[in-house]
Write a sequence for this structure.
């Protein structure tokens, strides 16, 4: 079965990498696991060995039919729920983890959807977000999320505001079929919640308004980008700093002080 470039399909064929994903997922028999884009089911099979239930959402009709046959026993037993849908339109369950080798062309959209997920009534609840995400992403994206170079981005702040990201393993391109042009990496995001906003009594929308304003012109100093949003005293205290120089705690302090 040929991978479809339009859907960002690259099938992982490394057993050690699959095992690392499972290990990072800390899966127990009581867990409900949501898998995004199960592909040919290599990761699905591994998750099924550990989890109580797996919900696999596959957009590709051909792969969906293939998976129905491959896992007919698990589907009949109710251990696997296979859904033929676009993950960005899917309403997730309550109390679940996300474990997936995701399509790289929608990495940002997937992170935004699940980290900021709200329940159907529109109220932001802890239960509507996954408790943990383990994802295969591009290696460069993983490095940006972790920001080991101390240079933050909207992406890294966005992830850190809702959870604790960690690089698990770099996975070279040769371990995929077809091999992508870039290396990949497994990341985990643990302790996902809105605790940062609740404990600091922050308006979530105002926080992101401030962040987006700060990063609007990355080469400019924050004194220029944020002069409409914060007090003159705070502007002066920022000195020559740019948006990438502020970590999550500093952004929180900036909003709380204004």
């Amino acid at each position: 079965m040929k991978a479809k470039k339009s859907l960002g399909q690259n099938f992982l064929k490394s057993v050690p990498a699959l095992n690392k994903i499972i290990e990072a997922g800390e899966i127990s028999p009581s867990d409900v696991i949501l898998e995004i884009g199960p592909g040919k089911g290599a990761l699905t099979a591994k998750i099924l060995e550990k989890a109580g239930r797996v919900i696999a959402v596959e957009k590709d009709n051909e792969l969906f039919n293939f998976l129905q046959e491959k896992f007919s026993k698990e589907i009949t037993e109710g251990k696997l729920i296979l859904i033929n849908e676009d993950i960005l339109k899917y309403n997730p369950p309550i109390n679940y983890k996300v474990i997936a080798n995701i399509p790289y062309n929608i990495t940002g959209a997937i992170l935004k959807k699940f980290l900021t997920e709200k329940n159907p009534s529109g109220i932001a609840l802890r239960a509507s977000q996954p408790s943990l995400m383990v994802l295969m992403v591009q290696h460069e994206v993983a490095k940006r999320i972790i920001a080991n170079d101390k240079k933050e981005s909207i992406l890294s702040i966005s992830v850190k505001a809702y959870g604790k990201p960690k690089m698990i393993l770099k996975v070279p391109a040769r371990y995929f079929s077809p091999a992508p042009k870039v290396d990949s990496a497994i990341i985990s995001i643990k302790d996902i919640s809105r605790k940062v906003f609740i404990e600091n009594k922050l308006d979530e929308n105002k926080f992101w308004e401030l962040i987006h304003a700060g990063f609007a012109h990355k080469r400019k100093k924050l004194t220029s980008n944020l002069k409409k949003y914060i007090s003159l005293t705070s502007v002066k205290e920022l000195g020559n700093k740019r948006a990438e120089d502020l970590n999550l705690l500093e952004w929180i302090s900036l909003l709380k002080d204004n």
In short: Confidence is low (pLDDT under 50) at residues 1-8. The chain has two domains: 5-197, 200-256. Strands lie at 11-12, 32-36, 53-57, 80-83, 97-101, 133-138, 164-171, 176-177, 184-190. Residues 204-215 form the longest helix (12 residues).
